[in-house]
Write a structure and sequence with these properties.
Radius of gyration: 34 Å
Shape: elongated
InterPro entries: RNaseH_sf (IPR036397)
Oligomer: single chain
Order of helices and strands: HHHHHHH
Protein name: Tc1-like transposase DDE domain-containing protein
Largest sheet: none
Strand content: under 5%
Number of strands: 0
GO molecular function: nucleic acid binding
């Protein structure tokens, strides 16, 4: 086998371990198809067939690096619109977003803190009594403010 491969022009380089079978016709064909597909995708991406920056109003240089392009993504990303906000505005409500993780700015956190403290002081004995107790404590918390 080695003699036949040597006659076809395959040789080991001195001091280097090389698998002669890696240069088989099937492997070469596979790599050819892989590289053709990869280059075709690159041409499609760079020519704008897959990515249409002109339609979106995005200006970019084809020579720009990935880091630069990813930095520009945030600038061109549309603002998030939530369906709950749309419905609330449709019926004349004002929607405000407060910063997350600031309990002092979240009124519901202050309310639930009061309710949880009242339940913790005198916990219910069974699951059946926990729901009415929670409703009763929340009513008391609303009344006292």
């Amino acid at each position: 086998m080695t003699l036949a491969l040597h006659e076809m022009g395959f040789h080991h380089l001195k001091g280097e371990t090389r698998n002669i079978i890696a240069e088989s016709a099937g492997n070469v064909d596979f790599r050819k198809v892989y590289i053709e597909r990869k280059l075709a995708n690159r041409v499609a991406l760079c020519s704008g067939r897959l990515f249409r920056p002109a339609r979106a109003g995005i200006v970019f240089s084809p020579k720009a690096t990935i880091d630069i392009l990813l930095g520009n993504v945030e600038f061109y990303r549309p603002k998030e619109e939530y369906m709950a906000t749309k419905i609330a505005v449709k019926y004349g409500h004002l929607v405000f977003f407060t910063p997350p993780y600031h309990p002092s700015l979240q009124p519901i956190e202050l309310f639930w803190g009061t309710v949880k403290n009242r339940i913790a002081k005198d916990p219910p004995r069974t699951v059946a009594t926990s729901s009415p107790r929670c409703a009763q404590d929340s009513r008391r918390a609303r009344e006292t403010g």
